Amino acid sequence: MDGLVKGLLDVALGGNNNQNETKSHRDQLSTSSWAEVVSGEQDDDDRSKNNQNYAYQREEPRESGGSRPTMRPHKDLNEDYGRIQDNVQNDYEQSRWNQKEEEVGNSDGWETVKKKPSKQHKKVHLDQWDNFKRPPQEQQYSNEVEYGVDMEPSGPELQDLSKACNKLWELDLNRLQPGKDYEIDCAKGKKVHQRDDVAEGTLFSWVSEDVFKKPTFSRFCSLLDNYNPDQGVKEVVTPQERQEQEAFMEEISRTAPIKYLHKYLAAKGIVSESYNEFKRMMTSLWFDLLGRGGTSGCSSAFEHVFVGEIKKQGEVSGFHNWLQFYLEEAKGRVDYQGYIFPRRRGEIPDSETQLLTIQFEWNGVLKSVSSTLVGASPEFEIAIYTLCFFVGGEDNYVELGPYQVNIKCYHLGNKIGSAFPIAE
């Protein structure tokens, strides 16, 4: 009998050991796969360089249905150990989950719940962005757009802002094609006041790596880590960041939408006919620091419109760019929660839709309604918002290809306070 009991104990303990070995192996796989996730090392550098006062820094991974993230004290922890722990946990929670229902507890008083599918990691190679950190004399730009493209504004376009905006849409030669360059899953819809998460997965299923090799897209993305998202914190612009801003403006100034914008504004006597002066004006318009929420020098038109900010009272402000959304979603900082029902019945968005109104959380903070032009190039968005700022009003009802759009544009002194599209 003693031998039988001992044998059973050995089997039981052996089983436990096998389980422990399996778990250890699974953890090792999780840790190794994390090294290939987008911006893994750069994220740590960015946090230590610019975001030491950022309230959502090094947040705990948030479970489905959870609330605001909480800070994890890390001063007394070994930094490498903490990073490994984060990576293993995040890799587990953000890997592609299967669609099974998982039992929580046993059937005695416990309920069965369905966990939200993973926020799948996307890989983005950032190697080419290192070239943008070189001195100005070592920067390399793409060729000027060929003048075979008709960039002269016509009389009707000069008289009708909608026609001019639609011309910009036609001139957006870098606009992406759904299904070819990227794929989205709009999931389910909701009303603005609803707070339940109706999206099981991410908005972006994938984006082609070739997208990030496009010069204007690549330079745009390299600017996104230059800002502290807390609206009340003053920005510190380094000489290198200023160089990146000027280089981005130089790059997009070689494209058709920006050349058309200059010709349009010059024809109306709004800007100088000198293209170099125009580029300097554009850099100042979009990147000069502004005051918001009672703090001077804490924002800029570029940061607000494209990067996004978090107000002191816990609201997401701005953040209307799809590239920023994709990259933040790839890092697990954005939780897509469904699209907002369109005003017109029957116009349900799908994977081909390029004007979306959505709801999401960024760093655990809700953006109840936001709109974005999916696949539009950075130069197109800069051009159309600048055009509406100088020529239009607060509401600008225009046509962009198949879309009826209201380009909202707010002034903050002589700078752009905010600009974004609204589906009409």
UniProtKB/TrEMBL annotation:
Basic residues bias: start-end ranges: 115-124
Q: Where is this region: Disordered?
A: 1-124
The Swiss-Prot or TrEMBL record annotates one GO molecular function as: hydrolase activity
Q: Where is composition skewed (Polar residues) in this entry? A: 86-97
Segment forming the signal sequence: none
* InterPro entries linked: ENDOU (IPR039787), EndoU-like (IPR037227), EndoU_C (IPR018998)
Answer whether the UniProt record assigns the keyword Repressor to this protein: no
Kindly list the cofactors needed. Answer: Mn(2+)
- The EndoU domain is annotated at 157-424
Q: Which UniProt keywords apply?
A: Endonuclease, Hydrolase, Lyase, Manganese, Metal-binding, Nuclease, RNA-binding
Report whether Magnesium shows up as a keyword of the record: no
- Basic and acidic residues composition bias: residue spans: 73-83
Q: According to its UniProt record, which protein family does this protein belong to?
A: Belongs to the ENDOU family.
Question: What does the subunit section of this Swiss-Prot or TrEMBL entry state?
Answer: Monomer.
Name this polypeptide is given: EndoU domain-containing protein
Organism in which the protein naturally occurs = Lithospermum erythrorhizon (Purple gromwell)
